[in-house]
Amino acid sequence: MLDQWYPEAARLTAMQSPSLIFYPTAIGWHPHEKKIHGEAQFDSWQTVQRGHAIANGIYMQAVNRIGLEKSDKNSAGIEFWGSSFCLQTPQGKIIAQASSAKEEILVAEIDLAKIEYIRRNWPFLTR
Q1: pLDDT value of residue 89
Q2: CA 2 to CA 115: how far, in whole Å?
């Protein structure tokens, strides 16, 4: 399993020449923190994933669940923020994104030749 927050995992994986790095996750916030920290936390998650795509010249897919999960009736729980990125280009552009409120299947077309083009002309990843 790769940890989506650290650049080393994405780099080591990218060096194995995949066409896509896929990050399944279950990330969210505690409901009482959402108003204060929610936007910054969500933005941090997106930014890190986009950074992996850019630094490694690879397509990225980050999938996240939706809904509120409570461990018991006295718990505030965790509200999963959804908003899966269906795909990102090797330059970090979001091609498609799911909503935060419903389950969705996103389909996007990618151009695998673009990986080599980006790596050759924007050489952050060298082997």
Answers
A1: 81
A2: 21
CATH node for 19-121: 3.60.110.10
pLDDT averages per 10-residue partition of the chain, 127 residues: 82 92 91 93 94 92 93 92 86 92 90 90 80
What are the tokens at 27? 């990330």
Confirm if 60 and 53 have CB atoms less than 8 A apart.
Answer: yes
Structure tokens at 39: 């936007």
* φ/ψ (deg, to 5) at 122: -135, 75
Task: Reduce the DSSP state of residue 47 to 3 states and report it.
Answer: helix
User: Residue 87's beta-bridge partner residues?
Assistant: 96
Distance (Å, rounded) from C-alpha 103 to C-alpha 101?
7
Check residue 21 and give its pLDDT. Answer: 92
Q: Helix or strand or coil: residue 102? A: coil
Tell me 92's DSSP state.
-
Q: Quote the tokens at residue 46.
A: 């997106």
What pLDDT sits at residue 50?
A: 93
* Domain ranges within the chain, ordered by starting residue: 19-121
pLDDT at res. 127: 62
Three-state DSSP class for residue 63: strand
